[in-house]
Amino acid sequence: MPLQNLADYFNDRFGQEHRSSFRPFLLENDVISTLFGQIKISSLFLPVRLASKPEEIIGHAGKLKVSTHEVQYLYSDEIENLLSNRPHADNNFESIIDFDRLSRTTHMLNYLPLAHLQGSLFLEVDPRHILGIKKDHGAYFEEVIHHCGLETNNIVITMAVSSPYAKHYPALIAGLINYRVRGYKIALNFDYVAQEEQAFELITQLRPNYVSLSARTLDQLRDNTLADKLRHLNARVEIAGGQSILQQIDQQSFALLAENTGFTLVQGAYYESLAIQDSSLKD
């Protein structure tokens, strides 16, 4: 289906759900952008590569590109009140749920030109979204995926793990399992495995397909045992049947860290610069 037709479909669907004439999805220069209040969001796709063979891309991580947007005066009040007038306005998660859905739909539409590569699309889901949905996690987005002619098994639902949500881990695990039942893959994104046993327990209980960390975050640490901790983590991930990803690798030292501590997958500007160099040499 042409991209404009898909944008029209999701605009109509949004209008019906919110009883609104506002149409958030825009098609400009073959790219979908989405309006949410006074911001415009679009997509950036970061290649996820095999650590042992970086030229091989296994998927892409969808990230938001955000810019400001001057709201049309006819719609400004309508946008601001879309959520406050919802029947569940006592739930602070409502706006998060809507933003998450709009963001993921935007990524899905923009990903379609890359879908022929048959790789995985990693999409971030806010923990508050998972907590705000009481059942049937992934059902709404499953309809989006199928309408685009794709499958849930190509989608990786990525959730950031952080200590403020520790008391909600049972509910978060239950929600992520609901996604898995519908065919989605699951990824946990740790800032840093500071509370190692708690992290290991999560990995053991959920058995995620992927566990990721940020090289930039690790670089800020002063920990002489870091390499050993990462090897231990990667071994636990492998035992649980998953793969580990070191993200935001923007220099060679981070690439060596990934190689020396057993990460399966890598992502970052360092590999993009190598790919550009290889391409120029071939030319």
Helix and strand topology:
Blueprint: H1 3-18, E1 25-28, E2 31-36, E3 39-50, E4 57-68, H2 73-81, H3 94-111, E5 120-124, H4 127-132, H5 139-147, E6 155-161, H6 169-181, E7 185-190, H7 196-206, E8 210-214, H8 215-219, H9 226-239, E9 243-247, H10 252-261, E10 265-266, H11 269-282
Parallel strand pairs: 4-5, 5-6, 6-7, 7-8, 8-9, 9-10
Antiparallel strand pairs: 1-2, 2-3, 3-4, 3-10
Helix pairs in contact: 3-5
What does the model show?
The chain is α/β, with parallel strands linked by helices. It has helices spanning about 5-20, 75-80, 95-110, 125-130, 140-145, 170-180, 195-205, 215-220, 225-240, 250-260, 270-280, and strands spanning about 25-30, 30-35, 40-50, 55-70, 120-125, 155-160, 185-190, 210-215, 245, 265. Mean pLDDT is about 85; it is low at about 70-90. Helix 3 (about 95-110) runs parallel beside helix 5 (about 140-145). The radius of gyration is 20 Å and the shape is globular. Strands 3-4-5-6-7-8-9-10 form an eight-stranded mixed β-barrel. The chain starts with a helix and ends with a helix. The protein is built from eleven helices and ten strands.
Order of helices and strands: HEEEEHHEHHEHEHEHHEHEH
Termini gap: 35 Å
Structural class: alpha/beta
Radius of gyration: 20 Å
Uncertain runs with pLDDT below 50, 5 residues or more?
Answer: 72-92
Biggest sheet strand order reads: 3-4-5-6-7-8-9-10
Q: Tell me the overall shape.
A: globular
Residue-averaged pLDDT: 85
Number of helices: 11
Q: What is the count of β-strands?
A: 10
